Amino acid sequence: MRAPSEWKSFTARYGGAAVCLAASLLLRRAVDPLLGARNPYTLTVLSVLISARYFGIGPSIMTTVLGAAAATWFFAGGWAALLGPQFSLVLGFYFLVCGAAIWLMEMQRRDHRRAEENARLASQRLADLQRETAERERQQSVSAKLRAIVESSEDAIISKDLEGVIQSWNQAAERMFGYTSGEMVGKTMAALLLPERRQEESDIIERIRHGGRVKHFETVRLRKNGTPIPVSLTISPIHDESGKVVGASHIGRDITEQKQMEEQMRQTQKLESLGVLAGGLAHDFNTASWATPAWRWRIYAIRKPRARTWPRSCRPASAQPCWCGRCWRMREREGTSSSLPTCRSRSPKSPLSFAPPFRARSNSSWISLPPPPAWMPTARNCSSSS
pTM above 0.70? Predict the structure, then answer.
């Protein structure tokens, strides 16, 4: 079954051939008084040539047959003329000429179609070549950018095949390990591995060969001078255009400074812990020692003695000792414990707090005393008699 486009082409070709035949018959009818019955197929051959040139072999054959029948009927005297030997010779010559013309025109059309097809293929090939060239230039530009990124990276980027042979070695790897690209490309990673970590590289290659990915992990590698270097590695598989794993990419970062900072932080935390422990021990010692009044008197005796001047409101010969702040400081300053004066303060307002005023300076540091024990009388016990 023909498609609609094919039907349109078929109708146009055969319709065009029919129009050419009709035009040639009308023209022959017009010149019939001049030609008569001598040349009935002259203009019909012209329509056959036009049909063979522009409409193909099928329409041209149709034009040949229908043109012969119409010319014989209208211009040669009818079907009876076919019985004459001379007319049969003319009709045979007509078919020979039309056949040769159709064959030549068909060969020309085929050559023309072939030339057009070759031109179309050449144009398409040229377009494909231009597209491939543009794509290749774009890939080269991208590759150049990627190479620039790899070379300017601060991380060591190393590629190797599935046998462990190094294929590329960037400048960061040269700075990190001390080996140049010429020294490492074409060799294995054995020069960078510690003896106890050689199995680690084999396990990595085996995992990459099966399409796995080695995420971030920390390990130790060797520099050219033999010193170990802590590195952080990420290893990924390299695929070709078909998706097959053909190698592995190593991205390594020097974490020496990070390890040093971690060690400093651990030392700082240890010192802080020791400081907290020492502070706790000192606090416990101070609490245990300053709870005894004898220790407080001994520390206060360090201070420079001053002249004994009792407050006017205190009487040294009193039967009830005075424990107000002024009498206490006077007694501690003089180192006296026998004379316990009685204060004449008439209105002691509140019990005396010993912690703020009772401080001694020893070894360039102030030490606060705890409050007095419960058995110690306060200023409320002082006599208010005048």
Answer: no
13 touches 58 (CB < 8 A) = yes
Assigned token pair, 116: 């057009």
* φ/ψ (deg, to 5) at 193: -100, 140
Length of the chain: 386
Phi and psi for 371 in degrees, rounded to 5? -60, 160
Contact 315, 324 (CB under 8 A): no
Each residue's pLDDT, cut to its tens digit, for the chain (386 residues) gives: 556 677 778 888 888 888 888 888 888 888 877 776 667 777 888 888 888 888 888 888 888 888 888 888 877 766 666 666 667 777 788 888 888 888 888 888 888 888 999 999 999 999 999 999 999 888 888 888 878 887 778 888 888 888 888 888 888 888 888 898 888 888 888 888 888 888 888 888 888 888 777 777 888 888 888 888 888 888 888 888 788 888 888 888 888 888 888 888 888 888 877 777 766 666 555 555 544 554 454 444 444 444 444 444 444 444 445 555 566 666 555 555 444 444 444 444 444 444 444 444 444 444 444 455 555 444 444 444 33
- The two tokens of residue 211 are 């399409």
Range of the domain at 308: 291-381
CATH classification at residue 169: 3.30.450.20
Rounded to an integer, what distance in angstroms lies between the CA atom of residue 323 and that of residue 23? 150
Quick check: is 104 in a domain? Answer: yes
Residue after which a domain boundary falls, among 86, 108, 126 = 126
